[in-house]
Amino acid sequence: MADARMNADTPVFAIAVAAELAGMHPQTLRQYDRIGLVVPGRTRGGSRRYSTRNIEQLREVAQLSAEGMSLPAIARLLDLEDEVRMLRHRVAELEGALRVERESRPGVRVFAAGSTGQVTPVPSGRRIRRSTEVVLWSPRAGG
After folding, report:
1. Are 95 and 77 contacting, i.e. CB atoms less than 8 angstroms apart?
2. Which of 18, 23, 60, 136 could form a Cys-Cys staple with 50, CB 3.0–4.6 A?
3. Per-residue pLDDT tens digits for 36-86
4. Cβ-count burial of 123 within 10 angstroms (0-12 exposed, 13-18 middle, 19+ buried)?
5. pTM of the prediction?
6. Could you tell me which residues come within 8 angstroms of residue 126 by beta carbon, excluding any fewer than 6 positions away?
7. What is the C-alpha to C-alpha distance for residues 130 and 117, in angstroms, rounded to an integer?
């Protein structure tokens, strides 16, 4: 039975298996690790362990390199892909938190910023002191 904690980033493959899966020589994987292009996880003893995401990256490196892209350009592309993945994860987290917040405050439909920058929900029907607060968001009627 698969462990629930296993995911695309779980380092499981030894270098020989990873090299075979990626269609590369193990020495190529070592070189990519040394230059920081595709960096595998390590065991306590220091052995490299590759994840399925590492294997995908190795295949992508091989394809892009065959198309003439330089290794520094490929490294930048992989960094940007990691950043996009991280940002998408963060957006999903924030959307979930916003959904929970909206569900916990069904009567709150307007938010305001105070003079010190704090954001406060403003219940429907409450007047906002214009001298110290600015309305940031208000839904359209019927929406």
Report:
1. no
2. 18
3. 999 999 999 999 999 999 999 999 999 999 999 999 999 999 999 999 999
4. exposed
5. 0.62
6. none
7. 14
Decide the pairing of beta strands 41-42 and 48-49. Answer: antiparallel
Q: Which residues of 65-74 are buried (b: 16+ CB within 10 A; e: fewer)?
A: eeeeeeeeeb
Residue for token pair 């957006």: 91
| pLDDT-wise least confident of 5-9, 31-35, 70-74, 129-133 | 129-133
Q: List the domains of the chain with CATH numbers.
A: 15-102 (1.10.1660.10), 107-137 (no CATH)
